[in-house]
Amino acid sequence: MDLFELSSSDDQGLPAVSQNAPLAVRMRPQSLDEIAGQEHLLRPGSPLARLITAADSNESIAGPASVILYGPPGTGKTTLAYLIARAGNRRFVELSAVTAGVKDVRAVIADARRRLATGGDETVLFIDEVHRFSKTQQDALLPSVENRWVVLVAATTENPSFAVNAPLLSRSLLVTLQSLEDEHISALVKRALRDERGLGDRIDIDDDALEQLVRFAGGDARKALTILEAATAVADDLFVAVQRDASVSGGGKAKKGTAKKKRASRPVVNLAALEQAIDVAAVRYDRDGDQHYDVISAFIKSMRGSDVDASLHYLARMIEAGEDPRFIARRIVIAAAEDVGMADPSALQTAVAASQAVAFIGMPEARIVLAEAVVHLATAPKSNAAYLGIDAAIADVRAGRIGVVPAHLRDAHYAGAKKLGHGQGYQYAHDAPNAVAAQQYLPDVLAGSTYYQPSDRGYERQVSERLAKIRQILSGE
Q1: Rounded Cα gap, residues 260 and 162, in angstroms
Q2: 3-class DSSP state for residue 475?
Q3: Which residues pair with 85 in a beta bridge?
Q4: pTM (whole model) above 0.85
Q5: Are residues 165 and 39 in the same domain?
Q6: Engineering a disulfide at 343: which of 273, 332, 336, 458 sits with its beta carbon 3.0 to 4.6 angstroms away?
């Protein structure tokens, strides 16, 4: 039997969902209220919310009537396409850019135009993975979008700025979906456990298993529900086995001084069921407990200590435990600034690029990006001079060692400033040899203070040599 009965559909052309469909399909949101996350897109009056609700309220749609949904897997792109179709009973047609060609696109558009000409419903054309369409295939969509023959909803996990033709992009509303947060995934799992469309309140999940499932999901709602469904099947089998064993052993009398074990009233998804279902060890790693802090501490210290192998080990532990890759990326950015610093300024560039790439592509591919950044940081020369410098400067400020800005550095552009002596004696650096003018920049109370002490490692060795000459000129020596 087909789990997802694509061959049948309702009056709008939306796929019918059988009772045997995957849990993720059965639990697909039926309204905006059921969508988890994406609050930035669905607030009342937002362009996307208006596109979904305008037809039901007989309002005209201002601006683009076509949408490009960009975001990681499992964030609700297909769901939003369905909701747009349901609004105002629009006709829904789905094409996959993997299998469809220009001929298929033109056939849908021709049918949509006939429907409009005869007073029929609008057509929502949903194209999944639109980035796989060639330029010619994307160009074939332009007239229909321009003339509103269809409401195009295109979904992509690739950056539309590179994956979608500029003319098509300019005619569409670009909607960026974000990975779901842990609380969103947890709420979706709990709803699936209780909702009649899902598991109908016949099974439970313990706290440890729920926490681990959320980590495994990595912000992907579809993945979370797929894992839950697999773990539920294992929990059912384990429950039946336990009940059978209890029935067999329960035939005899309990030994004196012992009590019979209380039977569970229904199946429970626990860590054992979860591990067995997805064949991945549930790494004991409590993000709110000691292990979280121990592992991230060891990770940072291994990069700082230039042990690339240990750094990759702790990275792997966090990845396998389902740690949020965005959290890992943030720690790498901090380490690049704090521990590598000016010894290799490109390390910060790598770390920031990795952070952006992680948000862009998501897991599992993001592990490669994170590993590249970790290798760069662990093998780079190290310096915390900039870090120590700003902390020393802040310490002086907090201690009240501030003083007044020297008169020659003060703003002299407003009326009356010159009468106060502002700007008098200021030397324009570019007019001086080497573009370094011999004048005082710090307040008098701090004159001669040095906060930044570069190391002799990596690029900072060059900085150190140049800085020594600069400070000599500034002091007038």
Answers
A1: 65
A2: coil
A3: none
A4: no
A5: yes
A6: 458
Residues 118 and 203 in one domain: no
DSSP-assigned states of every residue in 193-255? HHSTTTTTT--EE-HHHHHHHHHHHTT-HHHHHHHHHHHHHHHHHHHHHHHHHHHHHTTSPPP
Q: Using CA atoms, how far apart are residues 376 and 352, in angstroms rounded to an integer? A: 12
The two most distant CA atoms of the chain are separated, in Å, by: 106
Contact 219, 76 (CB under 8 A): no
Burial of 338 (0-12, 13-18, 19+ CB in 10 A): middle
Tokens of 27: 């639990």
Two tokens, residue 474 = 């500034």
Residue 346: alpha-carbon gap to chain centroid = 24
Domain that holds residue 162: 31-176
3-state secondary structure of 84: helix
Residues 274 and 294 in one domain: no
Residues 409 and 468 in one domain: yes
56 and 157 part of one domain: yes
Which segments within 112-156 are labelled E, that is strand?
123-128, 151-156
Say yes or no: 171 and 201 in one domain. no
Q: Are residues 295 and 235 in the same domain?
A: no
Instruction: Please indicate, yes or no, if residue 257 is contained in any of the structural domains.
Output: no
The secondary element (H helix, E strand) that includes residue 95 is strand 91-96
pLDDT tens for residues 211-242? 888 888 878 888 889 889 989 988 888 888 77
CATH code, 234: 1.10.8.60
- 299-344 pLDDT, tens per residue? 999 999 999 999 999 999 888 777 888 889 999 999 999 999 999 9
3-state class percentages of the chain: helix first, strand second, coil last, to nearest 5: 55, 5, 40
Q: How far apart are the first and last CA of the chain?
A: 89
Whether residue 171 sits in one domain with residue 36: yes
